[in-house]
Specification:
The model has no long low-confidence stretch (mean pLDDT 95). This protein is α/β, with parallel strands linked by helices and 328 residues long. The strands form three sheets. Strands 1, 2, 3, 4, 5, 6 and 15 form a seven-stranded mixed sheet that branches. The protein has eight helices and 15 strands. The chain has two domains: 206 residues, FAD/NAD(P)-binding domain (3-Layer(bba) Sandwich), CATH 3.50.50.60; 103 residues, 3-Layer(bba) Sandwich (FAD/NAD(P)-binding domain). The longest helix has 18 residues.
Length: 328
């Protein structure tokens, strides 16, 4: 049997959940399909991560988010979004990945997943960008010691660690592993720590570099990764370091595979921004909408939970208006 809904939402992150809540408020039948766990991206954040945003800016569905300090932790966020899911009794299917999307007639989409098939009049893609890392594109990147995701410092105690990058994640990882007993080196392609690093982190990492506790190679990049070494191109020439782990905090980017299959166009700009109506979030494919950070394309520092929560209400408002037109 095939379940049919007015709205099918792909992605159960905070914005996908916000879309489900707005669909619930609007009286629209809906289902959310999530390939991993609830708020999967947040779950894969570093264990001890602290958000830059205050808790009230992360709230959805009129459920208060109370944290122990001004900046909530990952653990508090996971607990909060679990509470939102329970409070609204959201219809979310976890550990179910979308495999294909096809038009069925003029008014329905057929969505096949790893666990079933669904029909829906409208699709909302809220898949974020955290599922696909930005590659280094260097020899040896496939070695097991290269990690693009970081959980906690414990596995790296007493190890020679190379951290790639100079933004928030890289600085957090470098400091945490250093404080837990790693020998930390950073490779930074520019001449400074990223200016927008969290204000309570930036002076700390800069001081550790200045005093020599953390070695940093600026205006440098990795040439090759070997089993027990790493080769770096620096302004002073090639440097070879002993190395146990490479933590490549190079960021993430959206996976366009699903967007391409659906037929969603991307712009000609450098960020491959998907094409959508700014007022309704509807794409060039009728009845298909984008929500959340995916709207920013490769410019992943443009949209966050706090400034894309409004997408949910915008989308459901348009769906309701279209539904009213069809019924007249």
């Amino acid at each position: 049997m095939t379940d049919q809904y007015e709205v099918l939402i792909i992605g159960a992150g905070p914005i996908g959940m916000a879309c489900a809540i707005e669909a619930e408020k609007a009286g629209l039948s809906y289902v959310v399909i999530e390939k991993g766990v609830l708020v999967d991206s947040l779950f894969h954040f570093p264990t001890n991560m602290t958000f830059f945003s205050t808790s009230n800016l992360l709230e959805i569905g009129d459920v208060p988010f109370i944290s122990h300090s001004d900046k909530p932790t990952r653990r508090e966020a996971l607990e909060y979004y679990r509470r939102v899911w329970q409070s609204w009794k959201l219809n979310i299917k976890l550990y179910e990945e979308v495999q294909s999307v096809h038009r069925r007639g003029d008014s329905l989409f057929q969505v096949a997943t790893t666990k079933g098939t669904y029909l829906a009049g409208n699709l909302v893609v809220a898949t974020g960008f955290y599922g696909k890392h930005v590659p280094l594109n260097v020899p040896g990147e496939e070695l097991p010691k290269v990690r693009h995701y970081y959980g906690e410092a414990h596995p790296y105690i007493g190890q020679k660690v190379l951290v790639v990058g100079a933004a928030n994640s890289a600085c957090d990882v470098a400091l945490e592993t250093y404080l837990k007993g790693s020998e930390v080196t950073m490779v930074i392609r520019t001449g400074e720590i990223y200016p927008r690093v969290k204000y309570w982190i930036k002076p700390n990492i800069e001081n550790r570099i200045k005093e020599g506790s953390i070695k940093a190679y600026f205006n440098s990049n990795i040439k090759e990764i070997r089993e027990h070494e790493v080769v770096i191109n620096t302004p002073d020439g090639e440097v070879t370091l002993e190395n146990d782990f490479v933590l490549a905090m190079t960021g993430y980017q959206p996976d366009y595979t699903l967007l391409d299959e659906i037929g969603i166009q991307t712009g000609k700009d450098e960020f491959s921004t998907p094409v959508f109506n700014d007022e309704t979030l509807e794409t060039n494919v009728p009845n298909v909408y984008l929500a959340g950070v995916i709207c920013g394309g490769l410019k992943t520092n443009k949209l966050f939970i706090e400034n894309s929560r409004v997408h949910a209400a915008m989308i459901m408002k348009n769906i309701l208006e279209e539904k009213a037109v069809q019924q007249t």
